[in-house]
Amino acid sequence: MQSRSLDLAVRCVEALKAVFGDRQDVLEGFRSRAREAAAQLYYSGLPYAVTYMAAKASKERVRGGKREWIRGSDLMEQALREADLKALFERWKKEELVEETAYELYGACIMRALRELAGLDVADFLALVNKLNSPEAQAIAGAAVSEFAEWLKRLAEAALP
User: Alpha-carbon Rg of the chain, whole angstroms?
Assistant: First the structure.
């Protein structure tokens, strides 16, 4: 039987390399996120880890002389809705929403895991966190996302600089 977690991890790394192959800083940032987040998921729990990633993905952007605040929760909601990671990453790159720390990219992969592997059908970030607050959802989603995060960590270590 084929591992759905591994399939999704491969899709994440392939999309990342296809879109950000020219940005070694972003690839290195993603690899760092993959390494630290697997442990964070285990020790802090899924609701905290998801909220932390969204918070770290928040950023200030200056466009046309105007400052605007980009909420990480908005980026995570886009990831929950967009099944095509490559298209999402391309849009974020074009809109200059990706930083070298790559929290938004790693968070997007986790959002896809919550949607595809844990079967959580929500499009609102706060509703997602609230849903994850139940012990039943934490147990089911936590197991699915932890397996995925381990695969993503190993693939990032093997395939990214």
Answer: 15
The domain total for the chain is 1
pLDDT tens, 145-160?
999 999 999 999 999 9
Q: What is the pLDDT of residues 54-71, one digit of tens each?
A: 999 998 887 778 888 999
Domain membership of residue 161 (yes or no) is no
Strand partners, 66: 63
pTM: 0.94
How far apart, in Å, are the Cα atoms of 38 and each of 74, 91, 154? 23, 26, 10
Whole-angstrom distance, CA of residue 148 vs CA of residue 70: 27
148 close to 9: Cβ distance less than 8 angstroms: yes
**Amino acid at residue number 2:** Q
Domain housing 141: 4-156
With contact defined as beta carbons under 8 Å apart, do 29 and 99 qualify?
yes
Contacts of 59 (CB under 8 A, 6+ apart): 69, 70, 72, 97, 99
* Residue 108 contacts residue 75 (beta carbons within 8 Å): yes
Q: How far apart are CA 146 and CA 33, in angstroms?
A: 14
Q: Note whether 85 and 12 are within 8 A (CB).
A: yes
The CATH number of whichever domain residue 50 belongs to comes to 1.10.520.30
